[in-house]
């Protein structure tokens, strides 16, 4: 392998990994494509259950961007965040939702910051994800309603 190939491989693996979880396929694809264009490696899951399987096998995930309400899934954004808190506490959880409702204060510590509203402001979403990745601790206990 040439030195430039090794460098390129190292750069690809050094990019942060975001797991995008949304039950609406087109939304998930749009978000994933936008994040890839902003330099992130992206994994995709259509449910909380699928996300958990990925998190069990992929240790390099830095942050999960999850839809809050996924009616057909056994694990919605809340259930997924609780699983992450218990099994992968180093992974940050950023929540996005098209539903304009505040988080229950009891659930707020599961997430990093307030809910990111859909449709997404791509620059603000990128900033939120990078800020979550730069925080070295577990989930932010200052999360809140938004």
Write the layout of secondary structure elements.
Layout: H1 3-14, E1 17-21, H2 25-37, E2 41-45, H3 48-57, E3 61-67, H4 77-87, E4 92-97, E5 116-117, H5 122-134
Parallel strand pairs: 1-2, 1-3, 3-4, 4-5
Notes on the protein architecture:
The chain is α/β, with parallel strands linked by helices. It has one domain (16-134): 3-Layer(aba) Sandwich (Rossmann fold), CATH 3.40.50.2300. It has helices spanning 3-14, 25-37, 48-57, 77-87, 122-134; strands at residues 17-21, 41-45, 61-67, 92-97, 116-117. Helix 3 (48-57) runs parallel beside helix 4. It is globular, with a radius of gyration of 15 Å.
Quick structural summary:
This protein is an alpha/beta fold and 146 residues long. The protein is built from five helices and five strands.
Question: Main traits of this protein?
Answer:
single chain; 5 helices; 17% strand; disordered C terminus
Strand order in the sheet with the most strands: 2-1-3-4-5
Residue windows where pLDDT falls under 50 for at least 5 positions: 4-12, 136-146
Return the domain count: 1
Calculate the mean pLDDT score and round it.
83
Q: Beta-sheet strand percentage?
A: 15-25%
Number of continuous helical runs: 5
